Q: What sequence folds into this?
């Protein structure tokens, strides 16, 4: 992947009705990368996407595309012909699928004879080759979004903006389309910015992740880095660290931290990896997929945290079940259907929870209160 | 009953023999209302685009005014246009009163708010994200407006039909500003009123029948345009 900066945003601010709805000091989009914007509704993801796409002039700040300032209407119009955007709502025209896919090319004045082979190729690629003559208003949600994607890719955009493109699809159509989009983005090397309100599969398409809250980017970095090393409690909760615990450092030797968690009648000591001062209060996060449940205490490893817990409730989550546990504090675990029946997990059941010291992530800043 | 049968027979006769007076009245009606509708489409759609696609203070008031205008009574329009075109009125120097141009003007005043009001509603009914989507596909502002109008073509053509229907059937304004002058400003509606008041039911029947056929034909044509380009 080239490291060249394709789009550069500097001191972006968007005000609406006297309130600041977006503030991004700096953001670089590099050629070929996929950047995911993640955050709850109202975090400013769509506003940032529209601003980056030149569709919403920022109140202040600067946008550069390949070192050209997008500060005039003509520059923004020229930029609009080199990028495109796909929205949550497919927003198809009252015309055939073929006419829809061709619409961007038509607006650019590409002759019909040149449009047709490209339209057909992209329709095939997205599995809607047999629907070309159908009315675009009579498609299923998945077919409609495929048409919208074909309409975008046929333009060979230098940047593709996707605003929660899969949110209105059912889970099966969503999974299929995300996978196909991943292949197409990889094959074409298209630079893309995708927004999503959950940490679902769409995020896995990304090379980099920016977590947004209240109009700001609270953390931005490589996908794994943000997922595994959230900087604050909000990001941690948002990237799926459902269990956040406050503890006090007892000892720290050779990167192994012993933490005391305060709970009801007694304290619990757990092990984590990292560097901290003894006596320091820290926040740690544990992902539910890293928590194992068993009937007996696990003594296989010395850097394994293991303690008795009580099941509060079991919630189906796609192929897994999320088990909420009580051990003086709240803990969540993901288990398979098999484990669920083997361990006979139901409210009130006493089991043993365990997770490795490496599964305990130290969160550097306490940040803002988690909302999810 | 005889009165009705006799009337229908005479009407048919007038139609089949292509009575020159009836033909002239019919063509004038079509011409006057057609031009008035055309002017209203240009003006009304222009207003609809400006109001629906822009944010400005007083936007709601503008929409309310257009909607009120949709119910403007033709006699009120007739009165105002007459006053404006009166010899010493503001536009008296044009000498338009009691000419077909005066009828066109009055009918345009009637149809413009109808097309503007229904046009604003048609454009506002489009998905709010559509403009951004069109721009994101690389459209210029002109291309965007054109695509939006195209996307709203069904309700917009319905608006045109409502406008034409309003003026072709209108009698109050036509008689006030046109004067129902034989050979110059007599149109189907004004002639029907006159013939009925004279007891010439046969002629009135013939004229009414033509009016209905005319209204039907024009609307059939517009409906054809409206439904033509819709894919299955």
A:
């Amino acid at each position: 992947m080239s490291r060249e900066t394709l789009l550069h945003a500097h001191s972006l601010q968007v005000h609406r009705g006297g309130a600041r709805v977006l503030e991004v000091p700096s953001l670089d989009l590099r050629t070929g990368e996929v950047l995911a914007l993640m955050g709850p509704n109202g975090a400013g993801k769509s506003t940032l996407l529209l601003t980056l796409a030149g569709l919403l002039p920022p109140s202040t700040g600067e946008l550069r595309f390949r070192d050209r300032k997008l500060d005039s209407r003509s520059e923004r119009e020229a930029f609009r012909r080199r990028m495109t955007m796909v929205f949550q709502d497919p927003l198809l025209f009252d015309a055939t699928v073929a006419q829809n896919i061709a619409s961007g090319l038509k607006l650019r004045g590409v002759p019909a004879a040149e449009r047709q082979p490209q339209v057909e190729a992209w329709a095939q690629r997205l599995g809607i080759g047999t629907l070309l003559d159908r009315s675009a208003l009579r498609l299923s949600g998945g077919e409609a979004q495929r048409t919208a994607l074909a309409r975008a890719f046929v333009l060979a955009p230098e940047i593709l903006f996707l605003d929660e493109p899969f949110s209105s699809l059912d889970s099966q159509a969503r999974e299929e389309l995300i996978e196909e989009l991943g292949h197409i983005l990889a094959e074409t090397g298209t630079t893309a910015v995708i927004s999503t309100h959950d940490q679902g599969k769409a995020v896995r398409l990304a090379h980099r992740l920016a977590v947004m809250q209240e109009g700001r980017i609270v953390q931005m970095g490589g996908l794994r880095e943000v997922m595994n090393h959230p900087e604050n409690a909000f990001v941690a909760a948002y990237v799926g660290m459902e269990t956040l615990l406050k503890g006090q450092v007892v000892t720290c030797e050779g990167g192994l931290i012993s933490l005391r968690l305060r709970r009801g009648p007694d304290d619990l000591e757990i092990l984590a990896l990292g560097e901290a001062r003894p006596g320091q209060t820290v926040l740690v996060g544990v992902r539910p997929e890293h928590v194992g449940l068993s009937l007996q205490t696990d003594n296989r490893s010395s850097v394994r945290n293991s303690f008795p817990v009580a099941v509060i409730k079991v919630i189906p989550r796609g192929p897994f079940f999320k088990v909420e546990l009580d051990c003086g504090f709240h803990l969540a675990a993901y288990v398979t259907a098999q484990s669920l029946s083997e361990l006979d997990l139901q409210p009130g059941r006493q089991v043993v929870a365990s997770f490795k010291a490496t599964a305990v992530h130290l969160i550097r800043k306490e940040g803002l209160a988690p909302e999810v | 009953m005889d009165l009705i049968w006799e009337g229908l027979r005479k009407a048919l006769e007038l139609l089949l023999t292509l009575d020159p007076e009836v033909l002239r009245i019919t063509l004038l009606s079509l011409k006057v209302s057609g031009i008035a509708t055309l002017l209203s489409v240009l003006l009304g759609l222009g207003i609809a685009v400006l109001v629906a696609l822009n944010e400005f203070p007083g936007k709601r008031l503008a929409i309310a005014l257009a909607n009120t205008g949709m119910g403007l009574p033709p006699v009120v329009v007739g009165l105002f246009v007459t006053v404006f075109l009166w010899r010493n009125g503001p536009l008296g120097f044009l000498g338009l009163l009691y000419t077909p141009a005066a009828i066109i003007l009055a009918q345009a005043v009637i149809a413009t708010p109808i097309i503007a009001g229904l046009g604003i509603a048609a454009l506002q009914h489009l998905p709010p994200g559509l403009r951004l989507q069109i721009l994101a596909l690389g459209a210029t502002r002109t291309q965007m407006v054109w695509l939006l109008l195209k996307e709203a073509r069904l309700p917009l053509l319905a608006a045109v039909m409502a406008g034409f229907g309003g003026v072709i059937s209108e009698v109050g304004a036509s008689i006030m500003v046109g004067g129902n002058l034989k050979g110059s400003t007599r149109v189907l509606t004004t002639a029907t009123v006159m013939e009925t008041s004279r007891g010439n039911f046969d002629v009135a029947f013939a004229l009414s029948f033509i009016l209905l056929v005319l209204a039907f034909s024009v609307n059939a044509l517009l409906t054809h345009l409206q439904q033509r380009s819709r894919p299955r």
In short: Confidence is low (pLDDT under 50) at residues 367-372 of chain A.
